[in-house]
Amino acid sequence: MTKSDDGIQARMPGMPGVVLFDLFFRHFIENKIKRRDIGVIPLLFSFPFMFYPKVLSGDTQLWILSAALIAFLTFRTDQFFNKRDGVLVVLSILSILAYAFRSALGFELLRHIYTYLAFLIFWIVCGRGNSEYFPAAVKATVVVWFGVGLYQYVAIAMGFHIEPFGRYVEGRSGVPGLTAESSYYGSISVLHLMYLLSQKNKKNTFYIACAVASVALSGSMLAMLLLIFPLLRLPPTPRIGVLVAVPLLVVSDFYITSAGLTARLSDVASGGSDLSTLLLDASLNLRVGNLYFTLVENLIPSLLLFGPIDFMAQYNEFALNSGVFMSGVESNYILPAIGEMLYGAGVFGVALLAIFLNRAQEKCATNKTKIERIAFIVACMLGPISISNIFLILYAQSKE
């Protein structure tokens, strides 16, 4: 910890890399990693740092895609391409073209290309060996993210001035961990939780507990709602434990610091609890507005690929005319990932999503788990988790 001109500043010690190396080293030694599989190692090490350090403006950084490209060219190339994935390739290309022909050259177009290119590469690479090395990488990510989130939380509680790796507004949100913001931290932690539960391995209990704690540290209401899905998966005794533990964490948070779920709930409810007052919260207003605009108001034009891509201008006009949603948005970023697919790729995005969901439910043995998996993936994509998120792809390809 060091002192700075504007107060005491807490810096993260170099522990994430140590924890990650230890987990991977023990896993690879115990399982005697094969020579043909060495190419996947850079990808596994990039998991916890997919958002950090931030060099480019965007959700994830380029090194996870670069590491995936290395794995794509070197990891189990005897299974280089599955013919069934041909339709995903075609629809991804059409989704890119649907956006490119209607948009100007710029960062948004590059980001759109990145999304579908990353989806294809991650889908193919993860399909070559989902059950061998990737679970260890997910567990390592859970531990590293929990450690960083807990460090940030404790530092704020002790009054230190910290510089989180992602967006953090003191008193209005939870900590972001190693992600872009708290909603990513919480939502992806729930995704980790569902992935670990799908393995039905009692040795995962510690990692499941860390993931649940990360959700509480994130302070994300969206993530707390997503917790309903893993809660329904738990046996009765652990379910009761979670139902007791989460309220205790929230109560403890209320008395300890202003960096967790309590801070977010207090900020949202500060002006009242009715719907109109809740919509005065800028973050909620923007999220609900983006959902309504992309999935209702502009749905048909989006599906039919009518008009140019100009989300910021179109949304601001819609918000101004609505009298409910806040205008003056200065970004083309669309908050719900599923809304971004529909707005940018239209009918091709819908077809790609439908096939993605179908492939995901094929991995389930019962109708109950099939419905549950589809519902959870859609719920994730109503938030910040996009189709190119590697953890979402791993979960979609995991067997139950």
Gap from first CA to last CA: 45 Å
How many independent structural domains?
A: 2
Strand content: under 5%
Structural class: mainly alpha
Count helical runs.
19
Percentage of residues in helical conformation: 55-70%
Number of strands: 3
Element pattern in H and E:
EEHHHHHHEHHHHHHHHHHHHH
> How many strands, which pairing sense, and closed or not: the largest β-sheet?
3 strands, mixed
Task: Identify the overall geometry.
Answer: globular
The poorly predicted ranges are 1-14, 254-259
Rg calculated over all Cα atoms = 21 Å
Characterise this structure.
This protein has 400 residues and is mainly alpha-helical. The protein folds into two domains: 1-80 and 129-270, no CATH class; 83-128 and 277-400, no CATH class. Helices cover 64% and strands 2% of the residues. It is built from 19 helices and three strands. It has helices at residues 16-31, 41-46, 62-74, 86-100, 107-127, 134-157, 182-198, 205-218, 221-226, 228-233, 236-256, 261-269, 275-278, 282-297, 299-303, 311-322, 337-362, 367-381, 390-397; strands at residues 2-4, 7-10, 161-162. α4 (86-100) runs antiparallel to α17. The longest helix is centred in the C-terminal third of the chain and has 26 residues, at 337-362.
